[in-house]
Amino acid sequence: MHALRTRFKKDIVAEFLPALLARRSHAKVGSSSKGHRHKSNKVLILCSGMPSVPSKGPLLEFLAKKGYWVFYPRYRGTWESSGSFLRYPLDKDVLDIIDEIPGGFKDAYSGKKYRIKHPEIYLVGSSFGGPAAILASRDQRVKKAILISAIVDWTVPSRVERLSLVWKFWREAFGEAIRFSKKDWDKLEGGNFYNPVRHIHEIDGKKLFFIHAKDDRIVTYGPVAKFAKKVGAPILSLKTGGHFGLGILTKPAIYKKIRKFLAS
Prior knowledge:
eight-stranded mixed beta sheet, alpha/beta, about 20% strand
């Protein structure tokens, strides 16, 4: 199954798959899309970490088969999308997508137009994309958000990835795949830009579910647990596992807990 592609607000390229709901309860998980119907209004937007290579086909298919329209955008200024990375906070990209979904969007290849009436919006944010999901959850259209190894405060130094080193590495290793200025990058270190902890009193913790490993050396567990407690959000604390990515969604024990939270 190949993901489709669309563009939002002229700038943001996103892969997507329609929700695949089996016509019969005994339909096989691996069956083709001919045996499915697209009548779900549940939308799940993946806010991925950076600078992960955008290759999430199996994950999109997994989530589509769970009944979600799933969107995997490239942030402005990254990969195929236009614009400059971090010119705006990444939650703006997410909200721009949410703005356009009800009015319809089209597959770039076939030109076929899709429209989701009265979408129920859910977000999943991991690592660098965690703040995008947390901050976008302030919008009343967002029902719930899952946060995986999510950054909650840019002023807390990482044990292994200092912002100054990450800047140099990204420029050298990813070149024009990420197009951004040092001036915009430095806004992160200032702590007032794209930083959930600065908006803690605006955040409804009942919408959030954190998943974090205590041995995560990239995004330290302590500040995340403290943040979750302050906003009243549940947190699944795992003893080991390191720094998780979006792939953890497909683990049966984890997805079972996520499904329960999203349905609550």
